[in-house]
Amino acid sequence: MNPSTRVLARIGSPADLKGLTETELEQLAAEMRSELIGVVGRRSAHFASNLGVVELCLALHLAFDFTRDRLIWDTGHQIYPHKLITGRAALLHTIRTKGGLMGYPNPSESLFDLFMTGHAGCAPSTALGLKAGDDLMDHSDRRAVAVIGDGALHSGIVFVSFNHAGGLKKNLLVVLNDNKMSICPRVGGLAEYLDRARMSATYNNWNKRVKSVLPSIPLLGEHAERWLQQFKDALKASLHHGMLFEELGLVYLGPIDGHDMKTLRGYLERVKTMEGPVLLHVLTNKGHGFEPAVKDPVKYHAPAPFRVHESGDGLAPLKTSSSRTYTDCMSDALHAACRENPRLAVITAAMCEGNKLQRIRDDFPDQFFDVGICESHAVAFAAGMAKAGARPVVDIYSTFLQRSYDQIFQEVALQNLPVVFCLDRAGLVGADGPTHHGSYDLAYMRVFPNMVVMAPADEKDVAPMLEFAAAHPGPVAIRYARANLDTINRDVQPIELGASEILEWETDGMFLACGSMVPICLRAADRLRERHGLAVGVASARFIKPLDQSLVKKALTECGFVITVEEGCLMGGYGSAVLEAASDLGLSTARLRRLGLPDRFILHAERDEQLAETGLDVDGVVQSALALAREVNPTRKFPIQTRKALATQNI
Prior knowledge:
Blueprint: H1 22-40, H2 48-51, H3 54-63, E1 70-73, H4 80-88, H5 123-136, E2 144-149, H6 156-168, E3 172-178, H7 189-199, H8 201-213, H9 220-239, H10 243-247, E4 251-257, H11 261-271, E5 278-283, H12 291-295, E6 306-308, E7 315-317, H13 326-340, E8 344-348, H14 358-363, E9 368-370, H15 375-387, E10 391-397, H16 398-401, H17 405-413, E11 420-424, H18 441-445, E12 452-454, H19 459-471, E13 476-479, E14 501-504, E15 509-513, H20 517-532, E16 536-540, E17 543-545, H21 549-558, E18 562-569, H22 574-585, E19 592-597, H23 607-613, H24 618-632, H25 643-650
Parallel strand pairs: 1-2, 2-3, 3-5, 4-5, 8-9, 8-10, 10-11, 11-13, 12-13, 15-16, 15-18, 18-19
Antiparallel strand pairs: 6-7, 12-17, 14-16
């Protein structure tokens, strides 16, 4: 297409949409989908969900003025079309790269992004709060809109927000973006007609008049009014599931075709004239406009980079990776455990694919439970299973498990129940950025009495740790990174409660490393030895709680310096546990340093870039060790030998 004829090139802000014809809007939607396909041709990015909301995004920006009105996209990975028309089209090629656009809403990028939203279900609450705040601040003319997916609809917080909205009677619009996998089924023409009628002032006025007239009819008035209400309720209940929302105080409209922009705009314009909270049910297709994604929206949720065949009906991957990850290894271990132990059950919260649990779901359906996007329910459900004698394993991303904090406390730890927590994506996760980093699990899990917290160093640790956890009489958390696996060449020591694994012991210094940092510390130790003549040993913590105090004492009394290394927040993490142990043992910590994630949010980038940024790559660990060694022994020289010099010595 000639760039001069492209509609998207003329859109610098949503205001530029106002003068477009229907034909130009359709062309714009096609151009936006082409841009989205181009992005995924370069890098992995959220795809099918974005293709599905192009018309919805355009219709919302045409109906509302979001320089004043409020818009929150729930689980904001469907934000790409919104970014295209809010002044960021020229930068879309940078999305999910270091220094580029974030793959989620980002208030620092645009005034049209109000919150970073990466956890599902919170948008209705936030939008309702915005509306209440605007009313309080004398901006009652502002409208508030939340777009929520059907997958997040059953989150407890959603229904609490609906209940609150119904009570407050604020002008809130919740758009239910239903991609045909919702709890609300499609309905027929009559229900759509009734919903359309209920939007009109004619229907509302007729309803009021009937209610005012019926009581005046002798004898029959009271009975007729009751009969009319029962008839209306029966119609709503039998024709569609909007009755549920109506009972909570929301006006239910729909469902309507989310790819029919003219109809969408008509509904949105009419909603603006209505008082009180409204739920607009919109049907969309994930992957709309790109047939492979329509046929398999799960596969194309966030696919690897691909090239579109000339025929347009298929894909050719640009690159493949055969590397095994910690997630792969845990999935295999769980599958084997399910086969060996029929009492073991695997529970996840709508992340079967992300946690690679499909084989368990297919091979052991009676031992697999997907509870949907409600992590607090997942944990309480697991507690009930454990109380009944089963062995539940809760497999959830670290960042999402935070949502069940109270249940971890009350239902599991307080009861000392044998629930195993597999915390996937612990640490830095790369392009998904700050909403998805598993930065805090070490700090938030180790504080609970009865809780055991573990971290595998490599592939050889994973299955034995799971076996240990499944046999332990109390709760156990196993955290592992979103990273390719390393395999450390060693004779694996048995897993013993609270015991670390010393891989190399040296007296110049010691790295006490946690989980995914163990292989990095081993490489750093090799470099320090070969290039700088500094002998630094490495121990794998294995257990963050209970902590191996004997290792702490041995390292602090026998070694020149000690550095703890963890892929988690420094406050309250593994290094803090070592400091606490040193204090309890009366040991000096003058030669102890901690490496971990700093007290700030780490923005999106490749995981290797994030490790380098936080000083947790090999170079960063080496430099920290050299700095501490010079501080401890300022008179000692640490030569810098080049690779060429080392090669010459080896000849």
